[in-house]
Amino acid sequence: MKIAIAGIGVAGSYLASRLKRDHEVVGFERMTEQHHDSICAWGTCRTKMDELCAKSGIDFAKYVIHDGKKMHVQIGDKRMFQIGLDGLCTYDKIGLIHDLVDGCEIHHGTAPKREELERDFDLIVDCTGFHRSYLPKIENDFYLPTYEYKVEYDGGVPFDDFYIKPFPGMSGYFWYFPLGDRLAHIGAGDYNKKHVKMTDEFLAKYGGKIVKTVGRPIRLATPNMCMPYSDGKVVGVGESIGTVFPLLGEGIIPSMECADIFVRNITDIPAYEREVRRHFAIYAKVFDFVHSKLSGQFSVMRHGLNMLAIYRHMKKHEARFGMDIKMRNLVKVARA
Ligand SMILES: Cc1cc2nc3c(=O)[nH]c(=O)nc-3n(C[C@H](O)[C@H](O)[C@H](O)COP(=O)(O)OP(=O)(O)OC[C@H]3O[C@@H](n4cnc5c(N)ncnc54)[C@H](O)[C@@H]3O)c2cc1C
């Protein structure tokens, strides 16, 4: 088939790498080649990425920047606890994106009209993430604003490993994700819109030189809320159809898993849609839990069972999340 992939982020690049051998794949990326980057903290889990990248013939280990041992979690101004890590890492996300599309025809600095793509291609895959430029608008969309700096430290980094600070009522969190000895991503996403203030406060406290400033909304509406997944020749893959784990704002692995499901069902789109709904079914529960906290409607009676289901899911997939999953830590964060 002749396939257009719109959006060369994590989903689009992974999809291109998986399809380029058997199909004629052409990519379109809105950012220019010179400015092409990935607005993200670049945190992911090594074990799952090893497995997904191996399917594209890529050794993920080459892209790892920082291999986490513990995550410092700050609750309020005084309390801090640690979560043991086994797999959580930061990696060169844009470097991997470039290598995944190696050998593909990619047009940078362009966002073609849907009609043009429909004329020239058998299939158009909407991998435009939050923008969802080629699919109908989502009726009940839900997203958080985010803000992030890449910071360079001359006189030593403020933390030796991952650090996060959940905001009261679970409205979002601040993150410090290390990128080697001198660099880090610091940023925040917050429903109550304190994300810029919190990031600037951290910067003022710990110093560092801003190398880059980015920000964009992150979609927390989960796949069950992001219908339709397809429209005519267009099919959505990745954050365009809500593949972000809402509790963590984690979208890299889920978007690649979504691409993997697409590759397996490329000739049967209804089967792709069914498998997406099945695979991401737990995300609906996670969203309900997070939303109940955000809107101040959380009650143990109504949402306790969801919380238990989320814990069980995360515990069962501990290796995939790259961290020790403990109920008491989930409760500490939920109570923050
Ligand atoms: C600040 C921030 C930090 C994050 N940190 C993490 C993290 O540490 N770990 C994690 O797992 N997840 C993180 N996420 C979420 C994760 O980055 C995304 O969910 C994931 O990248 C989604 O992949 P995607 O390919 O679907 O979309 P994207 O990665 O957003 O890629 C979409 C691409 O489409 C392009 N595009 C947009 N519109 C058009 C158009 N009309 N035509 C052509 N191209 C277009 C964009 O320029 C972009 O390159 C973070 C998100 C944000 C906002």
Features:
single chain, 336 residues, alpha/beta, FAD/NAD(P)-binding domain, seven-stranded mixed sheet, six-stranded mixed sheet, 11 helices, 18 strands, 34% helix, globular, binds flavin-adenine dinucleotide
Kindly report how far apart the N and C termini lie.
51 Å
The percentage of residues in β strands lies in 25-35%
Helix content: 25-40%
* Number of β-strand runs: 18
By CATH, the topology is FAD/NAD(P)-binding domain
Counted by DSSP, the helix tally is 11
Look at the structure and name the CATH superfamily. FAD/NAD(P)-binding domain
Please state the overall shape, judged from the principal axes of the Cα atoms: globular
CATH architecture: 3-Layer(bba) Sandwich
Spatial order of the strands forming the largest sheet? 6-5-12-13-14-11-15
Could you list the spans in which at least 5 consecutive residues all have pLDDT below 50? none
Radius of gyration: 19 Å
